[in-house]
Each structure stands twice: as structure tokens, then as C-alpha cells.
Amino acid sequence: MTRVLIVRHGEAEGNREHRFIGQSDVPLTAQGRSQVEALTRRLSAIGITRVVSSDLQRASNTVGPVAELLGLEVEHDVRFREIANGEWANLVAADVADRFPDLWARYRDGEDVDRPGGECWADVQIRAVAALEELLTEVAADDTVLVGTHAGPALGMLRWAIGLPQHGSVWAGPFGQLHNTSISTISVPGPRLHTVNDTGHLGEPEGLFV
Fold it and tell me: Where exactly are the structural domains of the chain?
């Protein structure tokens, strides 16, 4: 059995303001770095054999410390990046609602809208799952792979694991929001989904077990 640990990045600049950060390469906050320290302690004894990450620094710097501790290199795959927000990049909800009222209304209703100059959630799921499936062809049956990514791609991979096609907004799906440095676990063959949004290393409830 191959295990895949899907980790959302630590708190990054703009997260608290709920900005549409997307592919903006913002750093972790002090709180995010503290979360990463707790995550690294949690993951250090799990037997991780490979670490792959989005190339954006908030994701790479979330899984980098445990990779270094284990003597592994962080491999980067741009397909694990967050959604490309296009003209919504770095805006807050009020800005989007003011500049794109029709699109925003459809978005709030749960529609998977194309962001002007950017992507929709279906695009994100397609590329993230393609990257994951390719990765799974390269690993051994007993490997444990750590994937550092973002909420959107992570939710797309969780949907894939339970056979749910991308339809509508990821926030309207069965999993809700994923917390910073949360761990979700998939195994193959299957695929089988084991845990979602596990934040036990932060001293919080350990999420949903499936």
C-alpha cells in the first residue's frame, strides 16, 4: 500500500484577510512558521520516502523542513499550485463583488466560474490529479509520499479519491475548508481516503476520518 499525505501550506500573508492569493508567491507568516514546526515534529517519524510540492514558497517551505530532517529533496511540480486567480488576484471579497458583480453572484451561488484571465476549480482538479496519478506510477508499493500543496488542489485530489467529479465550487463540496498545515491521507490501490483535515499536531481536533 502506498500512502500519500496531502498537506496544505501554513498560514501565509493574506490568509487572515481572506484574500484571493492564488498563485501569488507570498511567504508564510510567523504563525505559519510556528505551524510548520509542529507539522515537522508530527511527520518526522512517519517514514516519508519522497516529498513533492507546489513551487510556490508557502507550500515548499511548509514541507521543506521535514524533507531536510529526513535527508530528502523537495521536488517541485507546478501542477500542485493553487488556482490562478487572474484579475481576482490579491483582492478581498468586497473588491471582487464591486468589480465583478455578476460573476461574484454566480460564485456565491456555488457555480464554478472562470476567473477573468485565470482558471476555474475544474481546471485545478484536472491538473492536480494528473500530477498525483503520474507520481503514483513512480513510487514503490510501500512508499509514503508527502505532497505540499494548497486548499484548492488538495480538495480536488480528495474528490478524486472518493470518485467525485469536479462540479461547482470546491467550498460547496463534502469537505469544506482545509486548515493550514492540515494533513489528508489517501492510499492506493483504491484509491481510498483515510483522513481529511487532520490538525492534531496543532493541538486541535484531528479532523474528519473517512
Answer: 2-16+27-84+120-209
Q: Which entry of 11, 82, 119, 150 is annotated as an active-site residue?
A: 82
Query: Looking at the domain that runs over 2-16+27-84+120-209, which CATH code has it been given?
Result: 3.40.50.1240
Residue that has been written with the C-alpha cell 465583478 in this structure: 100
- Residue 9 is among the residues annotated as catalytic for this protein: yes
**Eight-state DSSP code of residue 17:** T
The answer to whether residue 138 is catalytic is: no
Under a CB-based contact definition with an 8 Å cutoff, are residues 165 and 173 in contact?
Answer: no
Residue owning grid cell 488576484: 89
Specify the DSSP class assigned to residue 169: -
Phi, psi of 29 (to 5 degrees): -85, 175
Cα–Cα distance list, 124 to 80, 127, 151 (Å): 8, 5, 11
Whole-structure pTM over 0.90, yes or no?
yes
Q: Which of 9, 119, 150, 201 is catalytic?
A: 9
**pLDDT at residue 62, as a whole number:** 98
Q: How many other CB atoms are there within 10 angstroms of residue 109's CB atom?
A: 11
